Structure formats: C-alpha cells, structure tokens
UniProtKB/TrEMBL annotation:
Coiled coil region boundaries: none
SMART domains: C1Q (SM00110)
Protein known as: C1q domain-containing protein
Compartments it resides in: Secreted
Gene Ontology CC terms, in alphabetical order: extracellular region
Membrane recorded as keyword: yes
Principal localisation: secreted
Domain C1q: 180-311
Pfam families, sorted: C1q
Amino acid sequence: MEPFVDPGKKFETKETYTGLSTSKLTCITCISKWFLRNQNIVFRSVLTSLVFVIFVLIAIRNGQDGLSREVSFRLTSLENTVGDLTQKFLEEKHRADTLFQQLTSLENTVGYVTQKFLEEKHRADKLFQQLTSLENTVGDITQMFLEEKHRADKLFQQLEKSRVKRRHNCHKAHDQTQTNVATSVAFSAYLARDLDNLGPDQTVIFENVTLNDGNAYNPLLGTFHVPRAGMYFFTVTLQSFQKRRQWFTLVADRQMQTELLFYPFGHQMATNTAVLRLNEGQIVRVAASEKGVSLQNGYTSKFSGFLMNEC
Ligand SMILES: *[C@@H]1O[C@H](CO)[C@@H](O)[C@H](O)[C@H]1NC(C)=O
C-alpha cells in the first residue's frame, strides 16, 4: 500500500495559493490530522473525494467572487465613464441647443433682412419705372419743344425776311420821294401874344415859329398840313393864366386826338402828346374845346411835331 504523501501539505499550498484565510487553514489542518488518523481506506477515499469536492466548490465560489468584484469594478468604472459621457453629452447638447437657438435667430434675421431687401427692391423697381416714364415724358416734351422751337425759328425767319423786305420797300419809296420833296418834316412854334376869350373849336395860332422843316406848318393859320403819308409825332404844352377850368384838344381834321385840361388854380401848365398815322393832306391843329378860354404867351405855350417815318 502506497503511503499517502502529505496531502494536507499539498492542499495547504493550494489553499495558500488561492488566498484562503488563516481560520480556514486551521480548520483544514485539523480535518487533515483527523483524516490521517483514520485507517479505513474506503472511508479515506470517500472523505478525500468529499474534501476535494468542497475545495472545488470553495475555489469556484472564490473565483466567482473575484469575477463579480472585477465585474462590479468594471461596471462602476463603466458607470463613471457613462456618467462622464452623459455629463459631456448634456453639456454638448446644451451647447448645441444654444447654437441651434442662435442659428434660428440668425435665420429669422436673415429672413427679415431678405424680406426688407425684397421690399426695397420692389420700391426701387417702382421708382425706376416712374423715372423711366418721367424720362420718356421729358423726352416727349423736349421733342415737342424742339419742334415748336423749329416752328418759331421758321416764323421768326419769315418775319425777319418780311421786315427786311418792308424796310427795303420803304427805303426804295423814301429814295423815290427824296428826289421830289425835302426829307425832313418837323416844326415847332409858340404863342407870340396872350390869347383871350377863345370860342369852341377856335384854332390856337402859335405865331412864332422856331423850326419849320418842309414848311408844313402854317403860322398864320396855326395848322399843320400833312405833306405825305406816315407816322407823325406831336406834342402840345399850354399855360393858362385864368382861374377857371379850361379844355383844349389836338385835332386831326375834325377828329379829336389828344386833350389838355386845366383846373382853376391860375398859371397852370398842361401837356400831352400824340403819335398819329396820317394821310397826305390831313390837317392837324390845337383848338379850344369850350367858350371863353385863355392862354399865356411865350415858350410855355408851344406846339411841335415831326414825321417819324413814312411806313
Ligand atoms: C415873336 O417873334 C417876334 C419877331 O421875331 C418877336 O419880336 C417877338 O418878341 C416874339 N415874341 C415872343 C413872345 O417871344
């Protein structure tokens, strides 16, 4: 029979290796001693098997414990990692939310600006259309103005041409008459003596003549005889010495042309002019308009006239 070589020592080494506590080792030592004392082979075998089974069970349990500790440790570490990641994820989510809000706000702003831009563009387009229409109107008006100007220029040219023609004709007529009659027709005469108590339509005779070109003024009758048709200028100045109202007139033939009026203040002067287109042979004179009027002699009572032109 082979001696049972130090099975306790074997187990002890194994137990120490698997990390058993001192109380467990003591128990195992005592069981081993008891086992060595027992000489029954069957009993020993059964017991050895039992011990072996127990050892295996203990080893399994210890292994399980270690594993569960490892798993727990890893789980905790994983939990921590998950926690950290969750934290980070929440932070990132918060940042992303903030960014999303900013983006939304930016989008709104962009939308608003786009809207405004479109509105402004619409307004600008409208203004541009109005401007174009205005430009067209201005163009039309300019065109019309140019046409009217052209017409006016043409009319002006025609007028100028007719004027030149008329002047030319006038000069021709003038040159023709120049050979027959004296060119200048002009006279000036004043009262040589006081006139008193003149009657209606009585001619005022300005006897003292200072000028009588063309001899058209008759100082004996006080009448101017139109030598040839044309435009004549006359001026009359009278002085009254009476303190009463007095009327005088410049007449061409029987037609009154100009009036002179005095108010009753004494030694008043009245004057008037007449520009007349006259025909050859007409008679121009100054006449009293009412009964019993009077005039002061001298240069203060004067009748003058001249031919302006024959056209
Ligand atoms: C009028 O003319 C005459 C003769 O030339 C002259 O003697 C007389 O003084 C003149 N009369 C006046 C008021 O000047």
